[in-house]
Structure formats: C-alpha cells, structure tokens
C-alpha cells in the first residue's frame, strides 16, 4: 500500500497534464484574461479605425464611391502638391513650437514664484488658484473668452488705445497679419498650467541640501538656478515638452472656434486642413492621407518620448 501511493500520484499527474490545458498553463493565461477586455476595446476603438483610415488613403473616392478603386500613393502625391497643405504645415509648426516654448517659460516662472518662501503663504495660495484657472476651462470656453477680449470693440483694444499703443481698432482674428499670433497667444494662455503644476512638483522634490552646499561654496542664486534647478528639472521638462508638442500639433477646437483656419488660410492647421477635406469637400481619401501624415509625425515625436522615458 505504501509503495503504490507514489505510482497513483504520478498517474493522476499525467492525467491532469493530458487535459485541454494544464494548471500551469491556465495560471500563465490568467493575466491575459484580465487585460483582454481593454485590449479588445483598444483594437476596436483605435487600431481598427487607424487601419480603415490607412485603407481609405490608398483608395480613389473612398466612402463616396460604391466601388472605390485602389489608387496607391496618388492621394499622398496630391496632398504634397497642395500649397495649402504646406502652408498649414508651416503654421502648425509655428503654432506648436511657440506654444511649447512659452508654455515652458511661463510655467517655470510661475512655478518658481509659487515655490519661493519670499512670498507670503496666503498670497501663494491665492496665486495658485488664479494661475491654474485656464486649465479648468474647456476649449470652447477659452475660444469664446478670447474672441470677446480680442474683438475690435473688446477689452484688449480699449486698454491699448487708452495707453496710446494703437490708434485704431485691430481686428486680431480677422487680419491675416495678426490672426496666427493672436491664436497662438490664446493657446499659450490656455496651456501653461500643465507646466506650472509639473515643474512645481519637481521643484518641491529637489533636496534642499544641494542649495545649502552650493551656498556654502559661494554660489549665487543664478548659479544655483542654472547648475542645480535646471538639471534637476530636465527629465520633467523633456517629458512634458514632448507630450505638449504632440497635443498642440493636433489642436482643433480652439482653432475652429476662433478663426476656422482663416482668414485666407492664414491660421490653417493640419487638423483644420484635414477636417475641411473630409467634411467640407467630402474628399475622404485625401483627408485620410492627410490624417496618416499627421499620425506619422505624431508617432515620430512619440518615439523620442518613449526613448526618453526608457532612459529615465
């Protein structure tokens, strides 16, 4: 009896392994079962639409024609030959780069102000609430606010006229020479709180011993800022800047609600250019090609973001 027990156990084990799935295999598959609903939604809501857009970009008259023929790269060639496309590329880069740069400058300045001990804590609390207000508004609200402020009869023109800076009513969003700058300014105002909050958290995480040691060595405030503060914040700055570049390049509601890409394409962005191709001209194949180009640009920046995160 005692000698036959191990043989019985071995037989049971073999029988268990001969089943459809072994116990160990099931244990390995459990994590995949948990993530399968999210994976299914990801494929359904993101991957599948992306593949459909890629397919449309290679067709002639997608959606509009019942039997759309394969067009190869002709839609991309048409897009690249369109001067409005290249104008929108240049304006998108200007809008994006200027926004990212001034988001960082303003966000860092306000973060330093909120982190200093020279300002009364009560005042800092009030300023913290005021500075973060633009982050609470939706793009539609921001567009309405700045359309009212920059109206020819609005507050900005009234203040500038009272200060004798201008002697006529400037049509900020209606002039080809000022529209892109006014739009960029509105986006800068709306986006700096992200940098402010992130950099403020980074400043509060820098060890005070570094500043004390630098002070003992005779370093002034600028030296400490340049050689301690900035190097400590570099990982946060790079991460936020890359994300901000990706998000800003695809901004649509603010542009559409203020200028709509006009006047005369002076504020046309890649997002509005693609939207008009699809829903104004019903050129869904060209719109799909333009969307794929935007995707490639975004994925290129995303690649650098991922590499940066891996190095961290």
From TrEMBL:
Transmembrane segments: 32-56, 92-114, 126-149, 179-203, 224-247, 284-306
Membrane association type: Multi-pass membrane protein
Coiled coil: none
Residues of the ABC transmembrane type-1 domain: 89-305
Keywords for this protein: Cell membrane, Membrane, Transmembrane, Transmembrane helix, Transport
Keyword Metal-binding in annotation: no
Gene Ontology terms: cellular component: plasma membrane
Protein name per the record: Sugar ABC transporter permease
């Amino acid at each position: 009896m005692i000698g036959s027990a191990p043989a019985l156990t071995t037989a049971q084990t073999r029988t268990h392994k001969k089943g459809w799935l072994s116990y160990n295999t099931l244990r390995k598959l459990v994590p995949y079962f948990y993530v399968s609903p999210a994976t299914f939604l990801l494929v359904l809501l993101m991957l599948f639409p992306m593949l459909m857009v890629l397919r449309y970009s290679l067709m002639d008259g997608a959606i509009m024609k019942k039997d759309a023929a394969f067009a190869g790269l002709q839609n991309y060639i048409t897009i690249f030959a369109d001067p409005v496309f290249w104008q929108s590329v240049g304006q998108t880069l200007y809008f994006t780069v200027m926004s990212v740069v001034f988001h960082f400058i303003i966000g860092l300045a306000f973060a330093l102000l909120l982190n200093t001990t020279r300002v009364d804590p009560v005042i800092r609390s009030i300023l913290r609430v005021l500075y973060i207000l633009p982050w609470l508004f939706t793009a539609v609200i921001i567009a309405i606010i700045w359309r009212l402020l920059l109206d020819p009869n609005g507050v900005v023109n009234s203040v500038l006229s009272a200060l004798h800076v201008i002697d006529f009513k400037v049509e900020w969003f209606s002039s080809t020479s000022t529209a892109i700058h006014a739009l960029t300014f509105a986006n800068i105002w709306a986006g700096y709180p992200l940098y402010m909050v992130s950099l403020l958290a980074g400043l509060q995480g820098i060890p005070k011993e570094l500043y004390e040691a630098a002070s003992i060595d005779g370093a002034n405030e600028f030296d400490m800022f340049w050689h301690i503060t900035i190097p400590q914040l570099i990982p946060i700055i790079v991460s936020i800047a890359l994300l901000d570049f990706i998000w800003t390049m695809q901004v649509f509601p603010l542009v559409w609600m203020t200028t709509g890409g006009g006047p005369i394409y002076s504020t046309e962005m890649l997002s509005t250019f693609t939207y008009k191709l699809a829903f104004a001209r019903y050129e869904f194949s060209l719109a799909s090609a333009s969307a794929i180009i935007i995707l490639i640009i975004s994925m290129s920046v995303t690649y650098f973001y991922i590499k940066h995160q891996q190095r961290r």
